[in-house]
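Sample pair:
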Amino acid sequence: MGALILQRKRPGELFEHMIQQVSDEFILDEVIDRWLTYVGKYRARGKTCGNDEVVMKLSSVRTDKELVAPFDIN
């Protein structure tokens, strides 16, 4: 399931999907903060984020099963 999500979603769509999976507001705030920081750094360098990079970065925010499970590519 996770691999299909990665193949079909651009980073923005992936982020929206990830937000929908998060139930804890503290985790959600942290995810949004990390997302903006990560994407902002890449855009400042004129780069774009690959889906795998986004998932690795954001899933490291917490090991909350609701946050990480939809993006488990193993």
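Residues 2-71 form one domain.
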